[in-house]
Amino acid sequence: MRGVDKSFPGVHALKNVDLNVEAGDVLALIGENGAGKSTLIKVLGGAHRPDSGVIEIDGRPIEILTPQDSQRAGIGIIYQEFNLIPAMTVRENIFLGQEPGRVSIVPAGKERRRARELFDRIGVALDPDALVRDLTVAQQQIVEIAKALSLDSRIIVMDEPSAALSPREVEGLFRIVNELKSQGIGIVYVSHRLDEIFAICNHVTVLRDGAYVDSKPIGALTRDTLIELMVGRKLENEFPKRAVAKSVQTDDHEVRSGLTVRNLVGGPKVRDISFNVRRGEIVALTGLVGAGRTETARLIFGADKREAGTITLDGKELRIKSPRDAIAAGICLLTEDRKGQGLILNQSVLENFGLPNLARFTGGGLIQQKRERNAFQTYVEQLQIKVSGPNQPAGNLSGGNQQKVVLAKWLERDAEVIIFDEPTRGIDVGAKFEIYRLMHRLVEQGKAILMISSELPEVLGMADRIIVLHAGRVTGEIDDVKLATQESIMDLAVK
Amino acid sequence: MKRFIADNGSVIVLLALCAYYSVVTLGEQHPNTPAAGQEVAAAILQDSSEQVTVVVITRDTVQDRAYSEAVRAAIQTGGGTVLAVVNGAPTDARLALEQVGGAFNRVDAIATNHSASRWGPLKPQKLKATADKFPGISGIKVFKPQSYTWPSFLTRENLVNVINQNAVIAIIAIGMTLVIITAGIDLSVGSLLALCGVTTAVAIQQMAGGADAGTIGLLGACLIGTGVCTLCGVFNGVMVTWFRVPAFVVTLAMMMVARGLALIVAVQYQSALLGGGTEGTPEAVKIEAAAFGWLGNGATFGIPNPILLMLALYGLAHITMTKTSIGRYIYAVGGNPEAARLSGVPVFGVLILVYAICGAMAGLAGIVDASRFEGGRPNAGEMYELQVIAAVVVGGTSLAGGEGRIFGTLVGAMIIAVIQNGLNMAGVASYEQKCVFGGLILAAVLLDRFKRK
């Protein structure tokens, strides 16, 4: 791709971007959120038409106007959200759209054989007749890859393929990527996880604010130089320094005791969990995917039904039956799934911001929009939220800015306990740093923060204490983070 | 500019429709109002200086009577004499002319209107022939109001009529808009309208004292009627939330149950009237309290009461939806129920409230309907649910939820009303109207789709 340019009303999303993938090459496409990666992928996939620029395959210019053009040109795209039909089998999904003719009978046997061949090619075993809805996310991804291969794709684009995978599944993904690479397929790998990029990519192309920054072989880069290219400035440290010493200790234990959870039980995933988060402290809740971390947070927040256990705040037991009760008690939750649970995408950022805070802006039964706007504006400045105005729909923002809007709405609530579920998932390095700094500011104000995270460096860099879960129970608590290592955490997590 | 068109597409469509019908219905207008009668009288008085003698001739219709009465009064206050007022057929006119022509020796003028002026006895040659026999009318002149060219669609009378006839639909559409914004649907509104009408009628007849019912009694009966519908709405809401039954199914069931109840109540009432021995018929429950007709047929400041009620409800709903927490909550629940719940919105409460409001609006509409027909009709409001949904959708509310404006719905209801009125004026038969109508609804929504792209 050369000189690709694309504008949307109000946004110049891609400015003269170049991208070059060779056969058998794994190219990392990186950049902060809003840098234009997704737009570039959509141009390749035929979902967006570029305003100008050339796309060439084997030196021949091609025109991609529709998704079909893209497929015919040998480009396979695996989006973050899979395009699979849950109620159909693996085989039917792979060959959907490739049936021999409108009215002829689908040759099931032949398709089954071909599906097995495709799976063999990437070195996995999967039942072609399994229903897609019964598969794990990793297996669905394999189906997507097989589908791309069935169309003779020679370039495969993967958008954040590891985002929803467990560490072991990521290893499996790497094996597949290496297998494809050895078969001469060019791969564009989009990820925020720098470790992965160093593990499997040969080249890196960096975008920033819609513009092409640089392309380099991976050998010429270090983690720090790569981050510098992405954010356009030198980052001293991935994690900010705390101004006050960690864990404010006070004498008045009852009042400052913060959030205490005892013998929490609910649903199949939370069997018996007890811990506490003192004010002025960041406690990380970690463990493998499925250990019950998010479920624990939802139980505390009243989003799911609690079967047993008590929740106390500053020594007072709380009666939480719904998120409304939890919010009234001073607990808030920043969900992992911002788009599905944190925001109402078709509504404006202002409306999203105001939703839990309307009582504060209401006078005489009516919402005082000016007060609401002014309050929001202070957060726009304080958190440096990049919005065109208070009426911009929340769905148009990048992940980092969406997270900031969610943060703003809870900060306005002035909650005492803030639960962050994967606070930096899908967020670029620069915004990550700002969110970390904000978490520090909150604990300095005496708030209690419970942080759920799968990223062990984040856990080690941010937490005062670490609680490790496994199969719905606490398997370990690390009080002195200095002594903890990724290995010691993993050790507790698999116990 | 493009933005303006996109945001106000339905208003533009409405205006375009009005403009179109105005052009199509452009034609001679023949005024027949009391005001026109006064003008005619003034012209007659001006024409002859002496004691003027006049015969007033019109058809026998309510409007013509009002017109001729106005002429008579104005002539008399002006010092003239009205020899005869004829409200009848051409024969009556001929007889009257012969009579005054024989009895008086000078008759100056005939005051008439457009329709009567085309009658045979009033044509110049016929008039002359009569004058030969009865010389009293030999100098007679015919006066009628000035005709002018104006679209008959665009008369105050017609416009008020169009809005008035659709006020009921528009009122129900308020509730439906709220329900559809939460991504739900309510098919029971038409039946609830009938249930409310019948319940209110029975309550007036049996509890409030029938013909002697006082204001408080009438209000109490209305409260019972709307209360029943509100409770039905609450039931719908509880089913949708706690029992997770799809809104389509719950309200479809309620549509049948409420219609059935309305018929049962009406039939039993009729049977009780006949002494209880015989089976009743599903006739309307007649309301004898005369004051009850005020809401449906009365007018305040010259505007029919149903229109005033409709406008008041729209104003209230608009403020609720744009300026209050509950309005925000309704949009939030429609946009993303899970995110709303996790933001502390009482999602179940909001949904139950919305269905209750929809029931209450259907109930209010039922009272307007009962008042208009002076009886609770168990078969009223059939297929209204579809007309109402059409109004909401044409007004730009998305069936997917989370989007929609209250005034959009008002415009949508008016678009449908205007189309219907236009088709009537153009003389399209009712079967054909249905086809045209369906097509137009589809077109309106398609237009909206393109606009969004």
How would you describe this structure to a colleague?
Chain A has 495 residues and is α/β, with parallel strands linked by helices. Chain A has two domains: 2-231, Rossmann fold (3-Layer(aba) Sandwich); 253-493, Rossmann fold (3-Layer(aba) Sandwich). Chain A is 35% helix and 23% strand. Chain A has a six-stranded mixed beta sheet with strand order 6-7-8-3-9-10, sandwiched between helices. Chain A has a six-stranded mixed beta sheet with strand order 16-19-20-13-21-22, with helices on both faces. In chain A, helix 4 (108-121) packs across helix 5 and helix 15 (369-382) crosses helix 16. The radius of gyration of chain A is 24 Å and the shape is globular. In chain A, 44% of the residues are buried. In chain B, the strands form four sheets. In chain B, strands 3-2-4-5 form a four-stranded parallel beta sheet, sandwiched between helices. In chain B, strands 1-6 form a two-stranded antiparallel ribbon. Chain B folds into two domains: 34-146, 3-Layer(aba) Sandwich (Rossmann fold), CATH 3.40.50.2300; 156-452, ABC transporter involved in vitamin B12 uptake, BtuC (Orthogonal Bundle), CATH 1.10.3470. Chain B has 453 residues and is of the alpha/beta class. In chain B, helix 4 (62-77) links the parallel strand 2 (53-58) and strand 3. In chain B, helix 8 packs antiparallel against helix 16 (347-373), helix 9 (189-206) packs antiparallel against helix 10 (215-241) and helix 10 (215-241) runs antiparallel to helix 16. Chain B contains 19 helices and ten strands. Helix content of chain B is 66%, strand content 8%. The longest helix of chain B has 27 residues, at 215-241. Chain B has helices spanning 2-7, 9-24, 34-47, 62-77, 90-103, 114-117, 124-133, 156-181, 189-206, 215-241, 247-273, 293-297, 305-323, 325-335, 337-342, 347-373, 384-394, 406-425, 430-452, and strands at residues 26-29, 53-58, 81-87, 109-112, 141-143, 148-151, 285-286, 299-300, 303-304, 375-376. The mean pLDDT of chain B is 87.
